[in-house]
Design brief:
single chain; about 0% strand; DNA-binding; mainly alpha; 2 strands; 9 helices
DNA sequence: TAGGCCATCTGGTCCT
DNA sequence: AGGACCAGATGGCCTA
């Protein structure tokens, strides 16, 4: 839920609880002090609020061009200075807003490359970070060992520490039934590869439908390079983005894919494998599982899959 | 209605 | 001095 960027000041931010916060109050105060209260006194309080009050309090001020009765120069209520302080605060707020927008943009980018992305049902910030962490860890393990876990284990690992709703979401993305792999309550840790040997089996496989309504497809082996590609290209994935349905960016059999902003015409292969790579060929070479990253295509699946063809 | 999530404001701290 | 970063506080929105 991003709000307006900084260059579009939220003029009618009715939701802001700070419409009447002190910055605003100061502006009001400076113009219209409370009745029966000297403007100077009001502004002196402003000074105190800034932590810069350093006056001898008993000094009754007979203000005359900043001169006290003792003749010493008293700190003159400095409108320009107060205005500067207020302006700094307002600018700092704007910068902070901008900074948070940048942070949120980065989070949105992250949401698009973790294995569960939906424009309408966004992962929360914390869940996005957790999922990303699990995703990185899983991919690292895959690279390190050169082996692929089964889908169940893969999803289990991805969902480690995630909330049940998010787990269901991820499971739905991967066309798993979320309940079927929540076998370790309380976020108890489990190992990616040991579980690989334990979770092949009918307890998860194909006995029900995933949340998406599509039939689950058996999985658990990797005899073919695309065996675990579920109904690829997905019949309904072409509209998944528009409809707000979950559009899994991850192709498990291909280990992972990066789902960045897709150009029109490329939506029909959400289940396709997209890798980031160094090599680049012409778009004429593109197959359905070529890389699409930042508007470029990188057909290097074979290269990246090599470690798994053993 | 409670709880989760979020945006925003705010003041403090650190750094340049 | 001013900007970046951070965490606390607060209130709005949404959902179960």
């Amino acid at each position: 839920m991003l709000t307006l960027p900084f260059d579009k000041p939220p003029s009618n931010q009715t939701s802001s609880p700070f419409k009447t916060s002190w910055a605003t109050n100061q502006l009001v105060k400076s113009v219209k002090p409370e009745p029966g209260r000297a403007l100077e006194e009001s502004e002196r309080e402003d000074e105190e609020r800034d932590g810069e009050e350093e006056e001898e309090e008993e000094e009754v001020q007979e203000q005359s061009g900043g001169l006290t009765t003792r003749g010493s120069y008293k700190k003159k209520p400095n409108h320009a200075r107060l205005d500067r302080v207020r302006l700094r605060r307002i600018e700092a707020n704007a910068r902070e807003r901008n900074r948070m927008h940048g942070l949120n943009n980065a989070l949105d980018s992250l949401r698009k490359v973790v294995p569960c992305y939906s424009k309408t049902q966004k992962l929360s910030k914390i869940e996005t970070l957790r999922l990303a962490k699990n995703y990185i860890w899983t991919l690292s393990e895959i690279l390190r060992t050169g082996k692929r876990p089964d889908l169940l284990t893969f999803v289990q690992t991805l969902c480690k520490g995630l909330s049940q709703p998010t787990t269901n979401l991820v499971a739905s993305c991967l066309q798993l039934n979320g309940r079927s792999f929540m076998s370790e309550p309380g976020g108890e840790s489990f190992s990616l590869y040991p579980a690989y040997h334990h979770h092949h089996g009918p307890e998860v496989v194909g006995s029900s439908t995933a949340d998406s309504g599509r039939p689950l497809r058996p999985f658990g082996s990797f005899s073919g390079p695309y065996e675990a590609l579920y109904d690829s290209p997905s019949p309904d994935c072409s509209s998944s983005l528009d409809s707000g349905a979950l559009s899994p960016p991850l192709n498990f059999n291909g280990i992972f894919s990066l789902k960045h902003e897709e150009p029109v015409g490329y939506r029909s292969c959400h289940y396709g494998l997209r890798y980031c790579s160094i090599s680049q060929r012409s778009s004429a070479d593109l197959g359905p599982y070529d890389i699409h990253l930042r508007g470029q295509f990188y057909p290097v699946q074979d290269k990246l899959n090599k470690p798994f063809h053993n």
